[in-house]
Design brief:
Aminopeptidase, Leucine Aminopeptidase, subunit E, domain 1, 9-stranded mixed beta sheet, 6-stranded mixed beta sheet, alpha/beta, single chain
Length: 453
Amino acid sequence: MSAVLTKSKEGLPLHLIEKTDYSTWLEQQTTTTQQWLSSTDFSGSGHAVIPAPDGSLSAAVCVVESLNDYFACGQLASSLPSGTYRIQQTLSDQELIAVAFGWGVGAYRFDRYTEKAPANAILAVDNELIFDEATRLIEGTKRVRDLVNTPASDMMPQDMSASVQSLANEFGASFTEIIGDELLAENYPMVHAVGRASVHEPRLLDLTWGNPEHPKVTLVGKGICFDSGGLNMKPGEFMRQMKKDMGGAAHTIGLAYLIMANNLPIRLRLIIPAAENAVAGNAFRPGDVIPTRKGLTVEIDNTDAEGRLVLCDALTEGASENPDLMIDFATLTGACRVALGTDLPGFFTNQKILAAELMQSGEKVSDPVWNLPLFRQYKYALHSDVADLVNSASVPGGAITAALYLEAFVNDCPWVHLDVMAWNRRALPGRPSGGEAMGLRAVFEYLRTRYSA
């Protein structure tokens, strides 16, 4: 996607204007330009091209609500005629990053399995620091989208392992993994239980990077490569897009990339429990009681609430090192989508000040996230008569009870849990339908601000 950006000062004039400034800009243009825009019924919204007297392209104009919106220019790489364009207006660094990012992600195509026409309009960015920052943000987003869009036939635990190994090689990080029955020997019983029915062995993927003297930040990503629902099988319409149930892991891989590519002064650990929730004679069952890495026992109410099971073992391990901050991403509950819709990720945290700062970071980079409460009066719904907890509560507030379940495994560790859709149900400028990074830039912006060098 970043191929539609170039480090250059040359290109066709591109006028980027906010709606409130359009009338003033138009008054300053030549009579010919004014007449052309009027005759083509350009209403001061969207984009238009302006011809030269010889019929060639002279310039382009794009009018947006706000140049700080990271997706305001998301359609331009695909909708403007082929060529290289240079911005005429003087923009702030924040505005220029927003424009370049939107331009780049608007060129995204998932073309692994079929050819798609590429975007051919290129944006010239003559500020090298801005170019590099935008390129990294674009690449982080692309990695998340590609991982989520890849079908389960090519994205099983071993394939996710290869992705994390490649990431480790790219940045000189260390990588280890625990596979199959080794999970039992190493005390990850929940990861094993959820993944044991698949022919693709479950794995615990573990990457570390950075100076051990720096503050430790641990990322945990739900890596359910396909979710049939297990023995509590999902209806077909709900199973259709379950290749995206590893979207949490995809987000942590993209976030780990951004942390390392920007060389943030932190000690990073990335933990991904990767498994397929399949059906076979050895599948875990409703009513089973399964131990966890922490030692708590869990009664299985519903095998389709498997994400929190693999996460609880990984969170226990992450918390054991007392990191400065632990963050998990997961496509965890439909209840969060009912509460907030599919475009707004919800998050839970045991850090009240952090909650406000994270929401502010999201607003700054056009990546909103919304704080939901760890309402502890709902803990009653996790009661079991035969174990320490049940894994699923059949009461309203499912996103909250899921978060409360996870909280039981983080101890006093500063912790944020993001419940994300990881999927665009409809195409918008810069955001094609399919896999999507949601909350990625918000969390990265928060981390960059908190751990600035």
